[in-house]
Amino acid sequence: MDSSYQQEQLGGGRVRFTVHPAPVPKARGVGLALAGALGLFVLGTTPVPPSAFMVLARAAVAGCGGWWVYRMTIRWFARRADRARSPGGTFVVSASSIEASSGPNITRDQLRRLVVCNGVPKVAEPTVVNPGTVYSGMQTGAQNGRARPAKAAVSYMLRAEHGGGSSTLAGGMTATTAHGLLTDVSRILSLA
User: Fold this and answer.
1) Which tens digit of pLDDT belongs to each residue from 97-121?
2) What is the pTM of this model?
3) What is the per-residue pLDDT across 111-154, written as a single tens digit (0 to 9) for each?
4) How far is the C-alpha of 28 from the C-alpha of 25, rounded, in Å?
5) 103 and 131: one domain?
6) Total of domains in the chain
7) Which of 55, 98, 107, 121 has the fewest CB within 10 Å, making it most exposed?
């Protein structure tokens, strides 16, 4: 369960950042509970007196059906988590601007601040870097003693606040990766 990013020098002081998101943790508990409930239902509705063939057939249906329910539940939860966490991203940074792949180009003058936050609400305090201030380090929910669900651990994103809006540059990261990315981008923009 780890994310990463790559830096590619493009020349002229421009650097392309490509973020590879961490995989979403599997919701095994819910999938196993639903698969077990289906298996008990199928086996519990076996007519009395059961024949050996009927028990084997019902056990096969319970096993196959349970496996299918388990896999579908994991996929459903993973899709929901991916929608909330804004996975991955590519953007280009230079000393004078940020060129977001899915948003506006943000000049250094328009940039209000860079923010590391979590896509899962009420999990962590954001880490903020304002132009002209010193980056103070990690300020995650784990340091504040808050419990973090597994999905939240891979849902950190880097956002750029500018003018009247905010643009997500990349997401789907662990806290360590997100703060490393924030440090590298801040260094190029001379924010810290």
Assistant:
1) 888 887 788 888 888 888 888 877 6
2) 0.66
3) 888 888 887 765 555 566 656 554 444 443 344 444 445 667 77
4) 9
5) yes
6) 2
7) 121
